[in-house]
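User: Modeling request: complex.
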Amino acid sequence: MIKTKSLSEAFREAEFRVGEHSKRNVQVLKEAFKDVSGNIESDFYGRGKVIDDFQDQMMKYLGKESAIFFPSGTMAQQIALRIWCDEKKVKKVAYHPLCHLELHEEDGLKKLHHIESILLADKDQLITLADVQTIQEDIACLVLELPQSGIGGQLPDYTELQAISAYCREKGIKLHLDGARLFEILPYYEKTAAEVCSLFDSVYISFYKGIGGIAGAVLAGTKAFTSESKIWKRRYGGDLISLYPYVISSDYYFKLRINKMAQYYEEAKELAKLYNQCPGVKTIPENPVSNMFHVHMNLPEKELEPILVRIYETTGIAFTSYLQQNGSSCSYETNTGDNYAELPKEKLRAAFSQLEKEISKIAL
Amino acid sequence: MIKTKSLSEAFREAEFRVGEHSKRNVQVLKEAFKDVSGNIESDFYGRGKVIDDFQDQMMKYLGKESAIFFPSGTMAQQIALRIWCDEKKVKKVAYHPLCHLELHEEDGLKKLHHIESILLADKDQLITLADVQTIQEDIACLVLELPQSGIGGQLPDYTELQAISAYCREKGIKLHLDGARLFEILPYYEKTAAEVCSLFDSVYISFYKGIGGIAGAVLAGTKAFTSESKIWKRRYGGDLISLYPYVISSDYYFKLRINKMAQYYEEAKELAKLYNQCPGVKTIPENPVSNMFHVHMNLPEKELEPILVRIYETTGIAFTSYLQQNGSSCSYETNTGDNYAELPKEKLRAAFSQLEKEISKIAL
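Assistant: Request completed. Predicted assembly structure:
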């Protein structure tokens, strides 16, 4: 019996990938450094021109008093919450049930800081002002992730966001932005980063999602806040002797892609439409508000996987490397990056046409 | 009045530096990556061939069951101590007063883990077995730094080290090695890294001291220990999506320099002799046991600095970029790396001869 190729194998071997930028390989570093002079001095434990210049650039872009480069968002966000909890002497914060802090950090916030979290909103819904108003206990900080990636990258209306911000200020609750994908939502909101960030007391941004860098994050806020964050960065062992491999590559890819976010957003809407035309397929959100969304297909994994493998092999177009089964249906996250514009459109159409045909045979 | 050049300016402008390898600049990264294929896949949150292979190499080199790559030693060591404290349910450890954990981490161990520390030995002395035997309280772990860099890089006799290890095992105290400069002491001990590490339950090593990489560390021990350390690495935000900029450069410089440690050690002894021939100058230790030592000169900074600046300007040879004044004398740390072999020996002799002459005029 011939073993069928697995989805991840077929994905790996396919000529074209619908999402992402390029592959995550050493070329990403090589490209970022190819025109950088070897004489540029390393940063030195958080100091030096190379890190100062990039931090200044991000500080201005975010419209904050100060910005500090971190190895990771996990580190930056835990530190932000710790600072707000210490300031208010309240070890409690609130965030979404699918928040990175809750799902992907092995309970670092609790284990390292003994900070309790209140989970706001149902896990398939956005946090609303009404949710925030239900909080009975005293909390130091509310975290909002824009877009909420765990539910396909949904966004509240901007007026709702303004209302939550005003409410938090009135109640003495610090508002922290998980802006891992902040750049990606600006075309939808039609706001500058600084305008969005003005609603928040502290902001984290990432350089390896829409920007497509190697790794790295920035935490921004008042000077007092970031000064305190630098002490914690040292405590965490994040104040490396040299962060320039991440700083310089973040700078390179920021400049390369920051003005392409509107293009990615338009492409995401186009791609979501292609999915939504297929029977038994829907995207969440139906109309993307950034470069990302979730795809839900009404088929169990054992039926869907061979269909996708055949599509990848026939057309060379690969949609996803994995499927997550929920009951009798499957879902996956997708996005649009530099790869999307490179796709031969007739092959993309052929892939969707085959998807529609194969699903119709089974599902309907 | 013409302003005299500062020591750091003169150091920066001098043609030759006595210590270190090359300058800490982007060239260090470029050299490490010049022959690395762009097709090599990034590690992905601590997994993948690029990180697995290097961890395996270090595991074997250190003779431990398992080794995990970390962004920094600060992170790796705090985590090691936390694991040992949790295992024994005793939140107390012992280490030297000049330990990195005590001096350079903004009290991370206390602030993040509430672990108390007992400071062993006078700060200008090594920790002895007798010191360890004086500990009355129950402790989870003893940290030994080999060599003790804060006092010029001194080392206990190997038999003393064995005795401390045996005592700790008998008493149920875990022994952790701060091996930031482990590679550098192996020629003096005439032992393999695995032999030294066999005396310890957990070991941290660094890749940007004698090895001269960009940044990065490895923590090694039993599989159970390193599995737990990976969870903590995630909690700390050290489990980056891509650590390959540090992994690949650490691997490159490890291979380049691991067999040069004996050379650096011999050169350090030669350099220390040159210093010790000068009146009012002594090195600690008098005979280095690694590639590092401290230089003490019996002159206050305001008299010594202009002498050094003149030497740098006349000979092109620069000894140090800074001076630390202690009472009426000064000291600094120095070491031997790739730079030392490149020094024109007649210029080095001229520099020391000028040092001797100028100090003699004032000090005697």
